[in-house]
Queue: 2 jobs
Job 1
Amino acid sequence: MTAQQDIALPAGRDKTADRKSGTAMLLLSIAVLAVLFLCPLFLKNFTVFQLTMMLIYAIAIMGLNLLTGFNGQFSLGHGAFYAIGAYTTAILMEHFGIAYGWTIPVAGLVCFVSGFLFGLPALRLESIYLALATFSLAIATPQILKLSILEEWTGGVQGIVIIKPDAPFGLPLSQDQWLYYVTLGTGLLLYWAARNLVRSRSGRAIMAIRDNPVAARSMGVNVSLYKALTFGVSALFTGVAGALAAIVVQFVAPDSFTLVLSIALLVGLVVGGVGWLPGALAGGAFIVFVPNIAEEVSKGLSGAMYGLIMILLIYLMPSGAGGLIRTLADWQKRR
Amino acid sequence: MKPLLRVRGLEAQYGLLKVLHGIDFDIGEGSVTTLLGANGAGKTTTLRALCGMVRHSGTIDFDGVDLTRRRTEDIVRLGIAHVPEGRGTFTSLTVEENLQLGAMTRRQGSEIEEDIRRIYRFFPRLEERSGQQAGTLSGGEQQMLAVGRALMLRPRLMLLDEPSFGLAPLIVREVFAILADIRDNMGVSMLIVEQNASLALELADEAYLIETGEIALSGPAAEIRDNESVRNSYLGY
Amino acid sequence: METFFQQVLGGIATGGIYACMALAVVMIYQAIHHLNLAQGEMAMFSTFIAWQLLQWGFPYWAAFVLTLGISFAGGFLIERVVLKPLENAPVLSHLVIFIALYAIFNSLAGFIWDFTVKPFPSPFGTAALFGEGLIGAHQAGMILVTLIVLFLLFAFFRYTRVGLAMRAAAANPESARLVGIRVGTMAALGWGMAASIGAVAGIMIAPVVFLEPNMMLSILLYGFAGAVLGGLTSPGGAVFGGFAVGVIENLAGTYIPVVGAELKLPIALALIVVVLVIKPNGLFGRTVVQRV
């Protein structure tokens, strides 16, 4: 990481070309949506589970993207909010017997508040220092979850086991398929919300802070409030993802939420494209599938393979999938 | 006499945007040439193209060496010092370190020390502040530092990008007087890009007027200075 | 009171390790303005190279010098081969490259030398000096080596032309090119030097924590913390920061009731974050003053 600098911004384009590539994008989006809706009906349960995890990571990455891509704040610790979301759901289900559906918004809310509160002191910290602070958060998370005084609630190192819910109303879906659709629905809802947020007045303020905090302040944007709020919203997304993950995996334990998770989310963000929301899908796919591919290429050197794949991807698309798609669109336009 | 720098058909672009549409000009050995024009005409781009800092094509011949394919670092090593827009100060280093950096490509340590003392004679204010972080200097002092840094190369050609920018009129006079002194006593050739046309024309031997990426007019500086219609239509004074 | 001194001494002993690493971190930060997440793994890999050389029967100091040389070449090459093509890529893409390097070195070391824990010799012996075995001969030697490296670096950056050129290239690449500095070469030199310093850190640390592919994981973290605490612009500050982190960690573990022992690391980190909130450039960091 370096001291601030550019964090990959989409280039401005003229309007007619935008409309043309807009139609292409629309068709592509419809195709992707159709595949997302239909594929679980034809796949093995384990594959459906993997796809669900991909969507869950995509939701978390979307949250991170709001913070990093649109507001310019680094976070190496989003795994912490993922963990808070997961534990909120698990504790509510285990100790209070609350239905899983209700725990998700609660988890989101808890994470929003935690994110906002963490964002307040973090306001003073720039780039690398913020990275260290969030990094510390990621390191601390599993250790705090293991604390003996919290064991009554968190289950300590053992964690909490949850029961997987069945599809309601006698729908002819397996548990995995049902949870896939729950995740897909939540994901689309959140995507819609994120898109509207980014295009709103507040969204412009958030991006103005990224591009030039001093100018944003002089235009009357309350920089501190917006930064802390963005942190909260970002944590909310990631927390919802964590809550869904707890239900889907049926299990939470401290060692699922180490630094590795936070780093994976960040890698997913970059692979998908910083500042481009749909890229989250590519990022989620990377997190779920690439380690498996690396493992298959070489068992003994799977870590090295994983690293090589990462380097190759960055070579091929230095600004992530989003950057690649923009380049292709520009090229298409020029023909 | 063969010119020191000979530029033909220079084109340059940023991304897809073409800024220079084939310009020609010469700079004579030991003379000051000025490039005048409005904002956005392509003056700064011309300087950047000479130093290989933007994508460009055409021929740039510096005393028999073709510059078009060379990297910035190597162009500097031929004796071309560029005082960039915004002065390019190394803000976190001291004033003296900034000067030493100007001589980075030279070898002889004792001569460098001597040159630093000479720069301090030109700009006594820099000597007073020699140990200070360069970012704390005022705009005028940073301009002096930038000129001093360029001189440390012992350049054959200096490229100056708006040396008057953001300076108080008195300081501008001072800087230009020193530039004249440098030409007269050290025989350094210069290419000066300026918005302050009257000032630049006083100093320059030759002048070129650039308009939207093309040379609109050229000739001896004195002639352009005395030509009222040119002054009215192009230079606005 | 006795416990207090014991804990402080123990903190200084482990702090020496962190200081060593923090110095390497600041070094590379000065040269390339990046925090290299793979730095710890690179240091670990260098240490394995030293171990291999020792196994092949090289005398200690010959292996030491040779490892430094190999590491320098390796760091230089990594910059040229892996990072150079991505010069203009966004910051976060660089971060992913660092993570990739991390995975590659970790996995390669495990593959070549396996994951069993190996003892590593100390050139200073293991005799206890004072503090009831808390600070032994090796710890003292390690601290001395760290200070020597610090001094050499200081002299290099302050008094040599290459050092000045490296600082200039990092501070303002465009201007550096305009005075004829080969900025790319400077970055590669910085990587080479950082790799060598990392190798020194690894070789000094290995006798304490033993050699294995994951030995640097938490040490790098403490090193970062120390570097950031001391201020990323100040090598001396980084060394101080490293010692401070060691002491803070030990004292937090002893004196903060109930959670102290379990949360040594998070508490130390939290304290550092608090310091940063008060002094955002670190204790000894320099704010770069800039006039508009």
Job 2
Amino acid sequence: MKKKKKFGFMALVVLVVLSLVACSSEGGSEESDSNEKKELQVAYNAQPPTLDPLISTAVATRDVMRNVYETLLTLDENFEVTPSLAESYEQSKDGKTITFKLRKGIKFHNGDDMTADDVVASMTRWAETTSLGKGSFAGSTFSKIDEETVVLEMPVAQFTVLHMLADPGQAAVIAPKSTIDSATAEGLTEFIGTGPYKFVEWKSDQYVLLSKFEDYQSLDETASGLAGKKEAFIDDIYFQFVTDASTRLAGIQSGEYDIANAISFDNVEQLSTNTDVKNSIDHNGFNGIVFNKKAGLFQNVLARQAINTALNEEAILTAAFTSPDYYELEHGLMIKDQKEWYSEAGKDKYNLNDSEKAKAMLKEAGYNGEEIVILSTRDYEDHYNSAVVVQQQLESIGMKVKLDIYDWATVLQKRADETAYDIFVTGFPTEPIPNKYVFLDSSTEWPGWTNDPIIDDLLNKINTASSQDEAKQHFDALQEEFYEYLPMVKFGNKTTITTVRSNVEGMDFLQGIILWNVDKK
Amino acid sequence: MKGYILRRLLSLIPVLFVVAVVVFLLMHITPGDPAAVILGPEASPDEIAELRENLGLNRPVTEQFVSWFGGVLQGDLGNSIFMKQPVLQAFFEHLGPTLSLAIMAQILAIVVAIPLGILAAKFRGSFLDQTFMGISLLGISIPSFLLGLFLILLVGVELKWLPVAGYKPLNDGLWNHIKYLILPAIALGSMQAALIARMTRSSMLDVLNANYIKTARSKGVKESFIVIKHTLRNAFIPILTIIGHTFGTLVAGAAVVETVFNIPGIGQLIINSVERRDFAVIQGSVLLIAVSYVLINLVIDLLYGVIDPRVRLGRK
């Protein structure tokens, strides 16, 4: 009996060992296969809420899926519109019609050719799904002229139409008609595009795997921003979702990851002495405070102006981004690279830091010591650090200020409730056209509830301008009015830090990391 | 025995109901809207309202509860809004990494702690005993995330011996699987190891002084036999209780370690789901964890009988 037991036990041990060996040798062979492949491990700080670029304005969706999907038009490094899947485009004299000639021989990741039907279906879905589409393309139609020609007809001419079609946020991506037909109310169920990398797998809370698309047809022009030549040198790109900043930092130092985004500003100095990695510091929009203009003290424009007069933007930016290397004191809504738009208007009303004047204005505005609530989150340290400094600066002019700190999901909900706050801290990407800033247009009803007929009128004038010069004149007036009405206070331009291993070359950045043309030596 | 198990299983039902109501209410009292999270920071209120309608979030809370709990009773925990998959499937996909981590941490804890506890008891009051107990005090005191960060910096970044973060499933190879778990398992298991070591020591000390041990010694039984066979076995009940309880804590504590080491386990699933307000996943996961707690305790109770015949059920 005892012998039998012993034999059974030994057999069990042998079985376990054999199965473990089998497992590990199987894995070993897989690993040797993958060694031949070029893999890029990207530690990304947030998981996309969806992979359908039309559904979400989340940057994670944009950054991951820009490798998979392409648009008819796109933006170069100066935010200028250039053709991508369109070979060329022509705008009619009255501006109401745009004819797109499609590039020939473009293949989708499923092997099908891109046709005019796919383009019509994709553009129609974009116009009907996104807020930009619904707001600016109501009554417009996309139709097929022949296999290589698609025409957009609009009820009114829009000067900014090309920029809207090229916008990387909720981009007007081209997908096969079949995947659009099978999309549900919650978005696409298949992710097939024309980009240099194709979607392979989304392992929830772990990674999105993209792999090289062998039949990709690249443009020959020099790469610039999102435009020009795109080459896939990497076989597999893993977007690893690593929400913890210290884990991204450790992983890029140890070589676990090839690229890590959103590295903490506090760690840059430490990394700069490490020869195994290099830091890429890129412009990443701006932060600011948005006033609740529907209820409370800041319905009064004088109160908003008092706050703008009181704030010391330099101190706020230093608290949030540690050093002028990582921020820029800049008043403009459009950045200097956007040469066609950049405006000096309103500069004299930025970064005033004048407490005495602010106190007088506040008194004039009728402030009687009521508590002001600032809504912010610790999910984004720069938001929180800014909020703390704003609180101190407002207290120094005699205001009673309370910080309400929640997680990001709660902030998103609370800021939509006009009774819940007076000010919230948030960030914005730099938009290709002024009309895209959600805090300007009253029709979006976006939290903060801007409602200025002058701004609305100027936005409309920009949209219907007949030339860039005319549009720029209206934009100058708009930026002047922005600093008068103050729907929000802009702190200044911010950057984001992406750290890459020193053997990784070719990474670029325009509203998020660009991974085509990246190679690993 | 069967009646006992049945009674324990039936007691699950009220537990399940109370947990379900509490979790459901907590989730719906907490502010935050999954539709706003999906659509991103620049979405307009109209779009958010439309998606809320599509997701069924505009229905009255009682109606949502009845339809959800009705599903639970039929074994359907609902679907994740974000992952577009059934909650049960999402839960079990994330359970693998957590179990691997917890088992590995438990094994490490037991393998280290029990011999240490035995040696400390055997050489009570010696330098060895004091050193071991000093180390175990340190083990209890250091928070797992801090130990995790130290390990990452030392073993991962400086020495580059082991990966700093991530997870590979078993079918990627045994060594691949294990090497990603070693550091998190040490970080997670250190407190358990300390507890088990201390419990082993005190429990062994109680038994080592018993009369039957003296009798065994006087009969000339080998010392190692006395320690392992007579003492350890009799001292094992409280040790097993600690192991059982700490396994539960391991699974719960894994949430922190999973975040530091980026392991896609249950802890990460729940934290991420709370951040994005994926109600069905949070509710389903908490329910499943409550059920497994009750079941683990039942198994532990039954194991007592295996080790100590005196507490076997149904014996007169």
